[in-house]
């Protein structure tokens, strides 16, 4: 896949000379189905757009299909039709037994539904400020993960004990090829708040999904996105003018480590000791950016590590003047992903 992505512009230029020929070969070699072939043929696209569509479809099918596509491009007939391919695609070199950097395998992501996506949206509390804008985050997460093929369940305004019970139940029942859990709440350095003001620790959120004999999610990715602070400090604050349209999450968030078990990813909205930021009208910086990057990267087969790096880049560029703890400052934020994934995780868009 990396070879195709790295040479994508060159491949477009070369294959534009006869996209029908390469399309026929893809169908003949079962790299695309007859239905996919017919859909591409009937689309009213330019020659360039057709080739881009073909390459994106191949990359979206995973590493094995990409390898077979590269092998097809190295056949004599194809290279005779597209002689400039010889300058783009290096022939496959047999690997020595001790050769390092073998291709990273990929978690399967083909079932419909892919698995369950649970969204805990704590917006109103008995003794904490209402988290205005949080429903915007919940709605975007539901939209994006539904589009990615997940069954989505939203659980709203739960106490710490109710969240704990739900997580135990999901841990026992969840199947499929992947599990996703999004937690939107206030927090403290000990964990996230339930609507009753009691704390649920990060370890308690993850515990029901840790490896155990016979667990349906063993060897499968468990993904958690936590929209809460990890402290009360404003990151990189400087003296500035005042604009209070932006609101910070209150008093910290979950500090802890991800379990030693394999196949976990925990995406934190901010680094340790710092607040995360939420617009009271448009939702949080982190969740809204995460959803946008998933929409942009998933159709082309971009893996979650790359997507979360883009999220870091985008959020780190954002800033807003606001008042924090009585001091006017320039608000900044840096998310922090942590993981023990053992394979490449790609949220492929169902066809």
Quick description:
Belongs to the peptidase C14A family. By secondary structure, this protein is an alpha/beta fold. The chain is built from 12 helices and 14 strands.
- Low-confidence segments: 91-99, 230-245, 247-255
Return the CATH topology of the largest domain.
Answer: Rossmann fold
* Quaternary organisation: single chain
Number of strands: 14
Shape verdict = elongated
Describe the structure.
With 351 residues, this protein is α/β, with parallel strands linked by helices. The chain has two domains: 2-87, Death Domain, Fas, CATH 1.10.533; 115-339, Rossmann fold, CATH 3.40.50.1460. Helix content is 35%, strand content 17%. It has twelve helices and 14 strands. The strands form four sheets. It has a six-stranded mixed β-sheet, covered by helices on one side. Mean pLDDT is 81; it is low at 91-99, 230-245 and 247-255. InterPro entries: CARD (IPR001315), Caspase-like_dom_sf (IPR029030), Caspase_cys_AS (IPR033139), DEATH-like_dom_sf (IPR011029), Pept_C14_caspase (IPR011600), Pept_C14_p10 (IPR002138), Pept_C14_p20 (IPR001309), Pept_C14A (IPR015917). Keywords: Apoptosis, Cytoplasm, Hydrolase, Nucleus, Phosphoprotein, Protease, Repeat, Thiol protease, Zymogen.
